[in-house]
Design a protein that fits this description.
Length: 139
């Protein structure tokens, strides 16, 4: 019988548990080295319970405590270095939405001249991620 430590979770299950979209998890994997799910032979991500704990802590740092990505990265690294395990996110009531959180998305300006196609694609992906984050904040 599999123990909790050896149980693996698919990205869809983790997204439901953490209430984030798959592209958010994939982005966090690029920014937070402690978040490193295994991949099956077919390339499917599988997450351990520790990965899920890290994801929940990242979400708490970013969405509840208001850290930037860089700040959350430093804080998480310090927590893991000091205690070895991510702090367990605290269950709390969601904060009441503020008027400042109700942000609208302006029309997309043209990308700066002289960018490579790869840079334009990357900027487009970032723009789409930011729009999705704004939608979550406005929800």
């Amino acid at each position: 019988m599999a123990t909790t430590e050896s149980k693996r979770f698919k990205i869809g299950d983790v997204c439901k548990q953490a209430d984030v979209q798959p592209y958010v998890l994939r982005y966090w994997e690029t920014e937070f080295p402690p978040l490193a799910p295994d991949k099956t032979g077919g390339g499917q991500r599988t997450y351990s319970q520790r990965d899920i704990d890290v994801i929940l802590r990242i979400k708490e740092l970013l969405y509840t405590e208001g850290f930037t990505i860089a700040g959350a990265k430093k804080k998480l690294e310090a927590e893991l270095r000091d205690g070895g395990e991510p702090k367990t996110p605290q269950k709390s009531e969601p904060a009441a939405p503020s008027a400042a959180a109700d942000v609208t998305v302006a029309a997309s300006p043209e990308p700066p001249k002289g960018l490579s196609p790869r840079q334009k694609k990357t900027l487009g992906e970032i723009r789409d991620d930011l729009r999705a984050l704004l939608e979550m904040l406005n929800a």
